[in-house]
Amino acid sequence: MNGVFVESKFIGSSMFYGPGAGASPTAASVLTDILRIAQSKESNDPALQMCSSDLPQGELIRKGPTLNYFVLTNCKVDIKDFLVKHQVNPLMIQQGIENDEVAFITERLSETEKKSLKGQVKQVSNIKQILSIWED
What we know:
This is Homoserine dehydrogenase catalytic domain-containing protein. The structure is a single chain. This protein is α+β, with helices and mostly antiparallel strands. The chain has a single domain (2-41, 66-135), classed as Alpha-Beta Plaits. The protein has three helices and six strands. A six-stranded antiparallel β-sheet has the order 2-1-6-3-5-4, with helices on both faces. The longest helix is centred in the N-terminal third of the chain and has 21 residues, at 23-43.
């Protein structure tokens, strides 16, 4: 089972889970969807096709996220240097077309570490989205 945990200012915390292709394909799909949504905001085109389903209620076992995805805008610092300074070793950093847009992936962070990093990042950028990915 793969899971995606989304924190949003509009809907709060949400968990989406189900059978999947594995951590990397799931993560790639999530990032692609986020980029489509971000791009559609500028063009006013619908980002994704939506559908609903009456799925049975499942049991969620949270052992902690395996990956955290941060998407930032208006980033005023070199994010790589910033993360190293704060003892965070990113798995990947992606710079946007505009240098002030950045996305990075971290390994498992405790809730305390994530909250601390979130506070530090807020001082140098706007946080557009943070996703945490769980995998059984």
